[in-house]
Amino acid sequence: MPSRNDPDAPASVPAFYGAELRLKREAAGLTLQQLANGSFYSVSFLSQIERGQRRIPLDLARHADRVLRTDGFFERRCEDARSCRRTGLAGYFADAAEQEKRAVTITEWAPSLVPGLLQTAGYARAVIRAANPFAAPDHVETLVTARGERAQLLADDAAKPEFWVIVSELLLRQRMAEPAVMREQFAHLARMARQSRAVIQVLPLSSGPHPLIAGGMTKLMTFADAPPTVYTEGAHHGQLIDDPALVRAYAKSYDFLRAAALSPEASLSLIESAAKDLGHEHARRPQFRGLPEGFPRQRGRGEPSSGD
Q1: Long-range contacts of 70-73 (CB under 8 A, 24+ apart)
Q2: Which of 176, 221, 289, 298 is the most buried (most CB within 10 A)?
Q3: Nearest-angstrom CA–CA distance, 9 and 28
Q4: How far apart, in Å, are the Cα atoms of 126 and each of 38, 89, 119, 183, 192?
Q5: Are the C-beta atoms of residues 221 and 99 closer than 8 Å to each other?
Q6: 69 exposed, middle or buried (CB, 10 Å; 0-12, 13-18, 19+)?
Q7: How far apart are the first and last CA of the chain?
Q8: Contact 167, 114 (CB under 8 A)
Q9: 3-state secondary structure string, 127-179?
Q10: pLDDT tens track for 297-307
Q11: Where are the alpha helices (DSSP H) in the chain?
Q12: pLDDT tens-digit profile of 93-135?
């Protein structure tokens, strides 16, 4: 029999609920075959769910709740995922989004994008369009709105967490949108730092390799009444980690990043300088005023006619 890998079970949302399904099934003294009986799913499909390789479908969640007498636990999980999708949040981000609301502290490493909690609408729109090139405009706006609603977390003085962000200098150099949009975004970062809504540090490109160089966005959250967790995210997936050893390892990596990053004051100066440079760039950009008088104008293949 292959050895279990319990410490890694909560590393993602499907893995966490797969591990819960297995624990509840074993506590009830049932085999996979016995749990599968009466459903439309095979033993191998259930096994993949327990290993975190598949998400549990709604009808199977209801079947499991009924057989295991778990009082709607797995059905509620499916509803949570659907609710997140309806509100413009990815299903794999469901638990992390809820934990943000309860967090006492949030520490985030942002190597290439401004963290969602600090994004302006214009910047969010540009990033979302780039990640979803075939998305309908209405869907894009739903995602932008959802991101803005999440950002309200930092506006509540009574409940806002202590938010500490470390961003790569690359983030200040890469043009994700038009200069005016980028200038607005960097000005917003500076404003949030000056208003003590967030502590922001910039990790300079000259700092060299660091412990999180191989990963993407990473968020460490601590709570008043629960152990800390880490959320990591790639292009189309996310993982919520609560294994104590892994969380400690990520916390230590953050300590190294803080030590290598510029001070909050120097970082703020660099961010404001980037915003100022974008303002100059926008002012220098030549404005197209049409073709010179008498210049023959021909429609190219991609140019619409007056009737389009």
Answers
A1: 70/24, 73/20, 73/24
A2: 221
A3: 20
A4: 48, 17, 11, 13, 21
A5: yes
A6: exposed
A7: 66
A8: yes
A9: HHHHHCCCCCHHHHHHHHHHHHHHHHHHHCCCCCCEEEEEEECHHHHCCCCCH
A10: 443 333 333 34
A11: 13-27, 32-36, 43-50, 58-68, 73-86, 94-102, 121-131, 137-151, 170-173, 179-194, 244-260, 264-284
A12: 877 888 898 899 999 999 999 999 999 999 999 999 999 899 9
Q: How far apart are CA 126 and CA 4, in angstroms?
A: 43
Residue 19 in tokens: 């591990």
* CA dihedral sign, ordered 295, 300, 304, 305: positive
Rounded distance between C-alpha atoms, residue 203 and residue 111, angstroms = 9
Reading the block at residue 256, the tokens are: 């190294």
Report residue 46 as tokens: 């259930």
